[in-house]
Amino acid sequence: MKASDLFVKCLENEGVEYIFGIPGEENLDLLESLSHSSIKLILTRHEQGAGFMAATYGRLTGKTGVCLATLGPGATNFVTCASYALLGGMPVLFITGQKPIKKSKQGRFQIIDVVQMMQPITKFSKQVVDANNIPHLLRECMRLAESEKPGAVHLELPEDIAEEITDRQPFAVTEVDPPRAAWQAIEKAVEMIEAAERPLLLIASGANRNIVHKELLAFIDATGIYFCTTQMGKGVIDERHTQFLGTAALSADDYLHCAINRADLIINVGHDVTEKPPFFMDESGRLKVIHISFYPAQMDDIYFPQHEVIGCLKTNLQKMTQKIKKSPKRNVDYFRRIKDRIETHVYGASHQDGFPNTPQRIVAEIRETVSDDAVLSFDNGMYKIWFARNYKAYHPNTVLLDNALATMGAGLPVAIGAKLVSPEAQVVAVCGDGGFMMNSQEMETAVRLSLHLVVIVLRDNAYGMIKWKQAGSDFANFGLDFGNPDFVLYAESYGAKGHRVTKNGELQSILNRCLTEPAVHLIEVPIDYSENERVFLKELKEKTCLL
Known about the structure:
By secondary structure, the protein is α/β, with parallel strands linked by helices. The chain folds into three domains: 3-163, Thiamin diphosphate (ThDP)-binding fold, Pyr/PP domains (Rossmann fold, 3-Layer(aba) Sandwich), CATH 3.40.50.970; 183-341, Rossmann fold, CATH 3.40.50; 348-538, Rossmann fold. It is 40% helix and 16% strand. It contains 23 helices and 18 strands. The radius of gyration is 24 Å and the shape is globular. It starts with a helix and ends in a 5-residue tail after the last helix.
């Protein structure tokens, strides 16, 4: 068969459902092969959007998402989303085209070394130089992309190789049973936990990725230990749980950090240092940390755990739960009291009057309106901190934010990817006006796919997070304000339905209507970020951890 046909058969053999992307002339053989395939091509309006959609597919399913671009500028547009997938632990195969490598009449037109460009931001990057290599290269890509820590892989398929004839067939898909920690490692961890007076469980991105909520809940119930999460660990355990303290939306100095600083042991499940740090270790050794993950800790100046339990999270947590006992030394009184303070000052401070609405009010009204299992996706911006801190997630992978690369422009494409994975779920993209405009053209993609999707655009006409940092550094307000289109008309120009919040109380009623009526909806919501200064620059500095 033709090499491009074999390439597609190998993808089908791996269970690939979608390919997201923008083909170029160097991909035409592959495009023709796809036209006869069970794989659905999702044509996007920017390669970056395609990469974010593929990464979201990988994030939510654990299977490799696939995206496609041509050579040169098409391939370079993959750099941000490949970095996003690599740091965020999302399995994605990036496929790029290339001019003929054996004989070409176009000189160096559009040619850069894409394989070398992708090497630092992928787990594997290779050019296909022989059609006979396709089966083993694709099997290796999928295996590497999905193994811990998941991430990005890349194959370049040149135009002339895609035309070659081969008699090879796809490789069989195999699964590897993940390793388990030795009993000595389990026993030492249990001893450290039983000896601790104020242990605290921290749930991070790896626990969301591997869906270990049942095992973690059993561990929490068996031990009575209080827990908190990183931003990318939100929702692993229902955050209405009586022992849930909060999310580390900041790295230090929040109410939650009073509890972290009082802990004498942190049981850190699924954490890696690519996520913005939820706490800082120091050389005093006062704070002990157990690192529980699929892979060893990557140590740096602020993270150097004293013990590690490496291997399958589910199995290792089950073993620990079976062996552990509630310790008579354990003192949860401080955690109980700090939880009351967090409930009051974080989750309870939600309904201030005034218009435009504050972030707290917007977060609370969205939480009250969407279903328990609604999926929210985010760009990066000031509002992301507010949602991470103030929004309670009830199910795993229902808060899709990026605290690793922390890129703007992902919110809308991520929502499209999430809706394709879970068509029956309520999916809401929450975007800042800056981030939304970076990939707003994917509104057309959502409309063309006839998705039922809600996009909330928080308008402050500025790059709000940087303005907050600027003010916190006592710098003058400069260089961060911009204008915006009429977002209602902008949405309608794509065939979507546009809405605008103009007064208090409208957001909930408009959002409820949008969630009920199948269509692509955009809701423009003006936001008042003055609360940044009041809460983050004043209240938190004046708080005390002495209770």
